[in-house]
Amino acid sequence: MPAPPHDETGHSWHHSDQDLFTITKGGVGAVVPGYESDMPAFDAALTDEDIRAVLAYIKSTWPERAREFQAAVSAKEEDEQ
Predict the structure, then answer these.
(1) What are the domain boundaries of the chain?
(2) pTM of the entire structure?
(3) CB–CB of 58/12 below 8 Å?
């Protein structure tokens, strides 16, 4: 499967900050073992700081509604940990 678009038409904004970071760093298989995707892991190419910067940029392009939803998902996950 190809990686989805990371704008509001995709589903990246449905995921928490931690999930987005983990998927970017380790590939989709890092959160869904055995899932086949064209999205590679970027841990060998990007530092953690780079990954956070890329995700911040992507999130900055989302409409306010998507950013608010994603922030709530991230906050809920943090509260559950």
Answers:
(1) 13-31+38-80
(2) 0.87
(3) yes
CA pair distance 34, 64, nearest whole angstrom:
34
* Alpha-carbon distance values, 80 to 14, 17, 23, 66 (Å): 17, 14, 20, 21
The answer to whether the CB of 10 falls within 8 A of the CB of 4 is yes
Q: Give the whole-angstrom CA distance, residue 48 versus residue 33.
A: 21
Task: Name the residue among 8, 14, 26, 12 with its Cα closest to residue 55.
Answer: 12
Residue that has been written with the tokens 């995921």 in this structure:
15
Q: What pLDDT digit, counting tens, does each position of 8-48 carry?
A: 888 899 999 999 999 999 998 888 888 888 888 999 999 99
